[in-house]
Design brief:
alpha/beta; Rossmann fold; UDP-N-acetylmuramoyl-L-alanine:D-glutamate ligase; Protein-Tyrosine Phosphatase, Chain A; seven-stranded mixed sheet; 14 helices; about 35% helix; globular
């Protein structure tokens, strides 16, 4: 088939394009200016997107159009495709049609930890020789890429709760034909789509209801919202987590070490299995337990699972150490919800004990910039020593009443003994940290977007500062 993708550069659309091309389809697409890693992904596959959106990009006429969820109804190509009566699918519909129908999808859902848990599962099944298919919403280190067709029965896919397309406002994960679901957490997010927690609960409940009687739900017992949704599903439920009563848990708390955290997994069948997980933070210990439980349910021997978990190399932009200059370690992280910020900073405290910890934070998503988050942010940022707040990215889309008051947050944190600056621009953030960060400090940049390439720019400025002093 000739398949055309509108907004081909999305984090789900670009891997889908590459998968379709590898299946033998002729793939074309269009988007705005693209940047790595998605531009690199498409380039390696030999796919050259057309820049901008125009009805002429539908010539020759494709057999099928796939529409990304960032595409508005009035997009010129979307309008032309409708007028021409062309068959169209959303990205998740296309995934289901071309890659999930003959597989056993393992869908990783929840407010937090989806990308890391999906990448960890893809890595474990691959390292254990099970040849899974997978589609991860990030860049797993150690795997050939963020996607693979695979030859085994399993297909690991990140279960995004965001909407599928302008013509399909339901969550993406309802298209993924789940045979197994890992359910990590539930907390209000994406408030542009879910007005309250009840709406988000209903969406996840619909996903769990899709799991067949022969399937399985692996649920984090640490989260009361997760536990509350476990009464309805038809499928068997296995709980995991660090809380008392979980079926798959740890024999003793995680112990932080230089190379990660030492886990003693209490497996109901294999007994206690010890391993060093090369990730920090209790949230990542829980993510590893989820993957352990899923792999063991698939019959993968405990020794193989333990060896694979210990060899995991992480995910780009998840506590990723970008580099060090002038004695300052600079990390890049995707955290954009107060809970994720708090957990990540706690993990960095374990990883870099005794070092001064800076956090540079950009409220990038619509939810991240909302006023109701202020108290949760205050609690989360108390984990750091210095906080620098960038401007709200979607400031113009929020009313003054809806908008997070960054100066007020900065004032409260400073009064609590955590010096904080609310900056008016990304350049101000850069200049402040480049001038004040000292040898031994750890700086983490947090944003769900590009943050103006802050980690790389900061490293360059720190290196210039170091050279100037020599």
């Amino acid at each position: 088939m000739h398949i055309h993708l509108i907004a081909i550069g999305g984090t789900g659309m670009a891997p889908l394009a590459c998968l379709l091309q590898a299946e033998g389809h002729r793939v074309t697409g269009s988007d705005g200016p693209l940047y790595p890693p998605m531009s690199t992904l498409l380039e390696r596959a030999g796919i050259v997107p057309r820049e901008g959106f125009s009805p002429t990009h539908l010539e020759p006429v494709p057999d099928l159009v796939v529409v990304g969820n960032a595409v508005p109804r009035q997009n010129p190509e979307a309008v032309a495709a409708e007028a021409m009566g062309l068959p169209r699918l959303s990205m998740p519909e296309a995934m289901a049609r071309f890659f999930l129908a003959d597989r056993q999808p393992l869908v990783v859902a929840g407010t937090h930890g989806k990308t890391t848990t999906s990448a960890l599962a893809a890595w474990v099944w691959t390292a254990c020789g099970r040849s899974p298919g997978y589609l991860v919403g990030g860049v797993p280190l150690g795997l050939p890429g963020s996607f693979a067709r695979g030859a085994g029965p399993r297909f690991v896919i990140e279960g995004d709760e965001y909407n599928a397309a302008y013509f399909d406002r339901g969550p993406k994960f309802l298209h993924y034909r789940p045979e197994t679901v890992i359910f990590t957490s539930l907390e209000l997010d994406h408030t542009d789509l879910y007005p309250d927690l009840a709406a988000l609960r209903a969406a996840v409940a619909a996903l769990l209801a899709l799991v067949p009687v022969s399937g399985r739900i692996l649920a984090c017992a640490d989260d009361p919202e997760v536990r509350a949704l476990l009464e309805e599903p038809r499928a068997a439920v296995t709980t995991y987590g660090l809380a008392p009563g979980a079926q798959v848990t740890l024999d003793g708390p995680p112990r932080a070490e230089a190379g990660g955290q030492r886990l003693r997994i209490a497996d109901p069948e294999a007994g206690t299995v010890e391993l060093l997980l090369p990730l920090w933070g209790r949230h990542n210990a829980a993510n590893a337990l989820a993957v352990w439980a899923a792999a063991r349910a698939d019959g993968i021997p405990p020794r193989e699972v333990a060896r694979a978990l210990a060899g995991f190399q992480g995910v780009r932009r998840r506590q990723e150490l970008v580099g060090e200059a002038a004695g300052v370690a600079v990390l890049d992280d995707f955290a954009h919800h107060p809970t994720a910020v708090r957990c990540t900073l706690a993990g960095l405290r374990e990883r870099f004990p005794g070092r001064r910890l800076w956090v540079l934070y950009e409220p990038r998503s619509l939810s991240a910039g909302r006023a109701f988050q202020l108290a949760a942010y205050r609690e989360a940022f108390l984990q750091a020593d210095r906080i620098v707040l960038a401007p709200i990215f979607h400031r113009g889309r929020l009313t003054p009443e809806e908008r997070l008051d960054l100066p007020a947050l900065a004032s409260e944190l400073t009064a609590a003994g955590r010096p904080t600056r609310a900056c008016d621009s990304l350049d101000e953030v850069l200049e402040l940290v480049a001038a004040q960060a000292g040898a031994g400090d750890v700086v983490v940049a947090m944003s769900s977007g590009s943050f103006g390439q802050m980690p790389g720019r900061l490293l360059a400025r720190l290196a210039e500062r170091e050279e100037a002093r020599l």
